[in-house]
């Protein structure tokens, strides 16, 4: 039984990836610092879906803490690392850029250094479509993403480059996954899908930055987890691979779907477009098809339906979550 270290295991992608690994017969060592960037109750909810499994072991540790991470590597024979721990959020990265560098870039360096020291030869790194700002669509992995427009994107670019260095110097097999607007049940409260469902359900006006015609390549979390595990199981050398829905949708269409499945109308307040946001995202996923045999299965319509159903079933929890 192989043991996989999953960082950010209490996050949306982390808990779904760990869940899939456990179903496939892996042992999972989960790491999360359980920070309060958003309501910890949501992280605890996700973590509780994993804790009953005998092949799951959890450490409350920050990946910025090299010595604490080292103890985890000493106590467990790690066969591969999936680094999903990150400070997320484009807008907040402008307010507090320092924590994005210490977690996203330095934290990744800590993990790579320990992989080198303990002979771990497989490393999967979560990156972001935010790096493609200003590039022609659909976004291909070989585009020159050298001009990130937010500290968040810059910190992720730093992690990608550091991972390449450790591949080059020490032969670590690295797969970098650039995710595109991941959503699903129990997603982050600062993301549009969770916010919009909660606000529409509770009769709170929805704020849209821009006119609602901006597009996102929404990708359902179960599809993302599947692609992430496939990346773990394939030797790539060093590759950057997009995981996206491959079908951009306007934000106003997202709101229409939520209205449909909730059976409630939204009150929308429009505000100026934020400078650090992207007008549209669209993933070219040919490399994912070729190298991972992966493509998304869940449409936006089906994914929003499932997410709204989860919301309705967990209204008591959702009401306690602050936005």
TrEMBL record:
Coiled-coil segments: none
InterPro entries in the record: NAD(P)-bd_dom, NAD(P)-bd_dom_sf
Pfam families for the chain: GDP_Man_Dehyd
Ranges where the NAD(P)-binding domain occurs: 5-307
Name of the protein in its database record: Nucleoside-diphosphate-sugar epimerase
């Amino acid at each position: 039984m192989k043991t996989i270290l999953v960082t950010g295991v209490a996050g949306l992608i982390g808990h779904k990836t760990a869940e899939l690994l456990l179903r496939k017969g892996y042992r999972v060592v989960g790491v999360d610092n359980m920070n309060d960037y958003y309501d910890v109750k949501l992280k605890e909810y996700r973590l509780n879906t994993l804790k009953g499994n005998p092949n799951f072991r959890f450490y409350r540790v920050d990946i910025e803490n090299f010595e604490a991470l080292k103890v985890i590597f000493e106590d467990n024979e790690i066969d591969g690392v999936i680094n999903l721990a990150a400070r997320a959020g484009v807008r907040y990265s402008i307010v507090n850029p320092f924590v994005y560098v210490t977690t996203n870039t330095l934290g990744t360096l800590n993990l790579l250094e320990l992989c080198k020291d303990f002979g771990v030869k497989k490393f999967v790194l979560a990156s972001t479509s935010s790096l493609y700002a200003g590039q022609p669509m659909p976004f291909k992995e070989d585009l020159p993403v050298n001009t990130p427009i937010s500290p968040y994107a810059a910190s992720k670019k730093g992690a990608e480059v550091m991972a390449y260095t450790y591949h080059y110097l020490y032969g670590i097999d690295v797969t970098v996954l650039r995710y595109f607007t991941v959503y699903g049940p129990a997603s982050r409260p600062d993301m549009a899908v969770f916010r919009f469902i909660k606000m529409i359900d509770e009769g709170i006006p929805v704020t849209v930055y821009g006119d609602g015609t901006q597009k996102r390549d929404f990708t359902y979390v179960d599809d993302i987890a599947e692609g992430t595990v496939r990346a773990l199981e394939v030797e790539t050398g060093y590759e950057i691979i997009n995981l996206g829905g491959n079908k951009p949708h306007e934000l106003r269409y997202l709101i229409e779907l939520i209205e449909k499945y909730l059976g409630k109308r939204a009150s929308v307040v429009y505000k100026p477009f934020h400078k650090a946001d992207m007008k549209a995202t669209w993933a070219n996923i040919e490399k994912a098809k070729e190298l991972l045999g992966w493509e998304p299965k869940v449409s936006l319509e089906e994914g929003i339906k499932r997410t709204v159903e989860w919301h309705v079933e967990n209204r008591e929890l959702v009401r306690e979550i602050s936005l």
